[in-house]
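ligand=ISE
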Amino acid sequence: PDVRVGVIGVGQMGADHVARITERIKGARVSVVDDYVRETAEKVAAGAPGCRVADSWQELIAADDVDAVLIASPGRFHREQATAGIDAGKPVLCEKPLAMTPEDAYAVVEAEKQAGGAYVSLGFMRRFDREYAELKDALDAGELGEISVINCKHRNAHTLPGFDDTMMVHDSAVHEIDAISYFLGEAVTEVQTVLPVPGPRADDGQHDPMILMFRTASGRIITDELYVNTDSGYEVRTEVLGSAGIATIGMGIDRVTTQLSGGSWSGAIHPDFRPRFIDAYDAEVQAWVAAVADGSRVARRSATTWDGYLAAATCAAAEESLTAGRFVPVTTRPRP
Ligand code: ISE
């Protein structure tokens, strides 16, 4: 029988997941949805055959017709909802970030410890992107030699109102922060945020562009250039400098036209992150459904609550560095 998925939060990302599971994912269907805007939930439910609207997210998690829970609400609700999923003994796919503070993220790690196993897959979908996975495999095989520097770029066309510095760190840079541990498998020990002259479309409370610099335990440096109001397209690039080679992924161009007259060429970039990572999201959700069905609950390539905790600790140091203006050490507690 199909895995019956309950989706909490069906705004932009959650509605996208409902459509994905309904149209493309094998072995699962969406049985229940919840949103704090009831009409939004009703509209989304109408597009998924056999789907009903829950009275509350608590009711959704407890429901008999929900085998597994997908959380796509805003990040500040994730700690409470993920913990409730664990306590109910249901597998959870939680969108990033795991929580907005290291303390809250650690509480979810501890809830799993008490429950006696891993229940939560964390939605760092880039781990399922083909280029990311290939680069990861190349790094693991030592193909690039010794790695000293990674340069990342993260560009969005626009941000939504209220997307301040905190969101830039916890919602955008958090992807690169997870990528560091995914690629290198080592801890970030300190982070510095560097603020250039603001760009023309930076919102109130937003330093855009923003540059983050991370140092790892072995002394590698990772730069992350965030520019979230380019007014152009969605670009996510990673360049790895190794002693045996330099690898670049994510050139970010959807369509390249080389047959223009006059010897020039042109390309097109999509403004939205969902089409860019559609295959990664599909692969992530399909791997999660398979893990739910076979009882392992968390797919091998997936990020875990511990990854979410490490990312939250690094984000907290990055945020502190915004005002401290220097490298801030990342402090972490031992794994329970
Ligand atoms: C958004 O929440 C995402 O997860 C996107 O991948 C990212 O590019 C964007 O900056 C975030 O706001």
